[in-house]
Design goal:
Blueprint lengths: L1 E4 L5 H9 L14 H9 L4 E6 L5 E9 L9 E8 L8 H15 L4 E7 L3 H9 L3 E12 L2 E11 L1
Parallel strand pairs: 4-5
Antiparallel strand pairs: 1-2, 2-3, 3-4, 5-7, 6-7
Length: 158
């Protein structure tokens, strides 16, 4: 397994992984395309890393993007990580963040935000292990599958 900066040719695999989580761990309800992720790969102030196995198959990704296009949020980024079901429990998320967090720092970010479904205890604990703290819970902010969804906001500030 290796951790590498994503390339445009990884875009479809990244979209395929993300789309596995529609309606179960993201407020995005429409599938994302390879073009959506190619935009992130090529954008300024963004970084995206992938895990690849020995056969060069992408099994996870993590990225940081600007929190907002408003100038006053220039130091703030939003971070996320997604791993395929068969790669969970192998520390791939940790390896991705080990690579991504220093890059986020080099991009000038000093505040990272993660938005996580409140019932996703594994992701909450994962982010805590990287120095994120719980800011609060947005009760019923989401509406997915005819159910209201609570989201927690976590932040890492340095």
């Amino acid at each position: 397994m290796s951790i590498l900066p994503a390339k445009p040719e990884d875009s479809q695999a990244i979209a395929d992984i993300f789309n596995q989580y529609l309606g179960i761990a993201t407020m995005v309800l429409e599938p994302r395309s390879a073009a959506d992720y190619q935009t992130i790969i090529e954008a300024e102030n963004c970084a995206i890393f992938v895990t690849k196995d020995g056969a060069e198959v992408v099994s996870g990704f993590a990225y940081v993007t600007p929190y907002s296009d408003r100038g006053g949020y220039a130091l703030a980024g939003e971070i996320t990580v997604f791993i395929t079901a068969n790669a969970k429990g192998k520390r791939y998320g940790s390896y991705l963040y080990d690579e991504l967090l220093p890059v986020a720092d080099s991009l000038g970010y000093r505040h990272l935000t993660a938005k996580i479904w409140a019932n996703n205890g594994n992701s909450i604990r994962f982010h805590e292990s990287f120095g994120f703290r719980l800011v609060g819970t947005q009760v019923g902010i989401g509406f997915v599958g005819r159910k209201r969804i609570d989201t927690v906001i976590m932040e890492r500030v340095w």
